[in-house]
């Protein structure tokens, strides 16, 4: 007789395999940090500042959760985007503020020239009434007062009256007539002077730097007004 085959071994069934543990849900703060980092590019970096804070808090919370909370990568990305948006926002803000400063200078410069044009007309009217004589340099403010609607043009910059008178008269014109000036187109009549300077003087009263980027404000004997850059001051005529 042939030997019988051994009975099949009983299969042992163990408990079901436990699935590998997974990290918890992503941190809400990490997600918000990423969103705010993106929004920072549209809010001049303000949202990015909040995004940096939330991203940092999220990383601390994720680390302490021992795996119960995920989203570390989101938090890091949120901090990075928020930082970039904040830097870009600060750069744009600086450019904007600088632009405002330049625009203000341009406006005040235009206003100053407009006021000085009135002064120039007043000098011409005065000379017509006084046999072609220019006003005496030591008292030109008082002499021209009656010829001006806005006497502030004589004493201060527009919007900066607290700083005092801003212009002086060329003292070398004292006692002269218009006809005595050989080169009226380049001879200085009034000019931008240091605050607190005497009523009249020469180039020594010019500020070390012009008040406006366009250059020093100069009124010439012939009545026209220019912004003269520092490099061109040598072209001015002081001695009539």
Walk me through this protein's architecture.
The protein is of the alpha+beta class. Helices cover about 40% and strands about 10% of the residues. The protein folds into two domains: about 30-95; about 115-235. The chain has helices spanning about 30-40, 45-65, 70-130, 140-145, 150-155, and strands at about 165-170, 190, 200, 215-220, 225-230.
Describe the SSE topology.
Blueprint: H1 28-39, H2 46-64, H3 72-129, H4 140-145, H5 152-155, E1 167-170, E2 188-192, E3 200-201, E4 216-220, E5 225-228
Parallel strand pairs: 1-3
Antiparallel strand pairs: 1-2, 2-4, 4-5
Helix pairs in contact: 1-2, 1-3, 2-3
* Pattern of helices and strands: HHHHHEEEEE
* Number of domain modules: 2
Global geometry: rod-shaped
Rg, Cα atoms, Å: 39 Å
Classify the beta-strand content into a percent band: 5-15%
Major β-sheet profile: 5 strands, mixed
What is the SS-derived class?
alpha+beta
Distance between the termini: 148 Å
How many helices? The count is: 5
Q: Order of strands in the sheet with the most strands?
A: 3-1-2-4-5
- The residue ranges in which pLDDT falls below 50 over 5 or more consecutive positions are 17-21
Report the strand count.
5
Give the % helix. 40-55%
